[in-house]
């Protein structure tokens, strides 16, 4: 294979990967728990953007349940945004097994 062509393809992939990484940081995903009474939104930078709690689920005598619901919603949101980011990056790398992607 032509070395110049390989280098050109590598540069192209590097540029596409950088673009995909930037786009991945702009992603958001929502996680819910308790049938939607707790919702969390995570960004592609693994930051929780918001948490929404339906007032009907707030029971001062059962704080642990609310904590569990919040934890479940946050974990679901983070997992979902990571899956979206991985899919975006895999579209560029073609599943080449590049560490971290």
Question: How would you characterize the overall build of this protein?
Answer:
It is a single chain. The longest helix has 31 residues, at 63-93. Helix 1 packs antiparallel against helix 2. The chain has helices at residues 3-25, 63-93; strands at 28-33, 38-43, 48-53. The protein has a three-stranded antiparallel β-sheet. The protein is α+β, with helices and mostly antiparallel strands and 101 residues long. It is built from two helices and three strands, in the order αβββα.
Number of helices, counting only DSSP H or I runs of 4 residues or more: 2
Computed Rg: 19 Å
User: Could you give the count of β-strands?
Assistant: 3
Order of helices and strands: HEEEH
Helix content: 40-55%
Q: Assess the beta-strand content as a share of residues.
A: 15-25%
Low-pLDDT windows of residues: none
Structural class: alpha+beta
- Sheet with the most strands, sense and barrel status: 3 strands, antiparallel
Q: What distance separates the N and C termini?
A: 26 Å
Strand order of the largest sheet: 1-2-3
Mean pLDDT: 89
- What is the 3D shape? rod-shaped
Keywords:
about 100 residues, alpha+beta, 2 helices
Outline the fold blueprint:
Blueprint: H1 3-25, E1 28-33, E2 38-43, E3 48-53, H2 63-93
Antiparallel strand pairs: 1-2, 2-3
What's a concise summary of this model?
With 101 residues, this protein is α+β, with helices and mostly antiparallel strands. Helix content is 53%, strand content 18%.
């Amino acid at each position: 294979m032509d070395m110049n062509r390989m280098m050109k393809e590598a540069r192209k992939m590097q540029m596409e990967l950088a673009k995909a990484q930037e786009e991945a940081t702009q992603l958001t995903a929502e996680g819910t728990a308790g049938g939607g009474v707790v919702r969390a939104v995570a960004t592609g930078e693994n930051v929780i953007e918001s948490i929404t709690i339906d007032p009907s689920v707030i029971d001062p005598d059962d704080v642990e349940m609310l904590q569990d619901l919040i934890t479940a919603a946050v974990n679901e949101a983070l997992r979902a945004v990571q899956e979206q980011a991985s899919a975006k990056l895999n579209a560029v790398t073609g599943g080449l097994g590049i560490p971290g992607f």
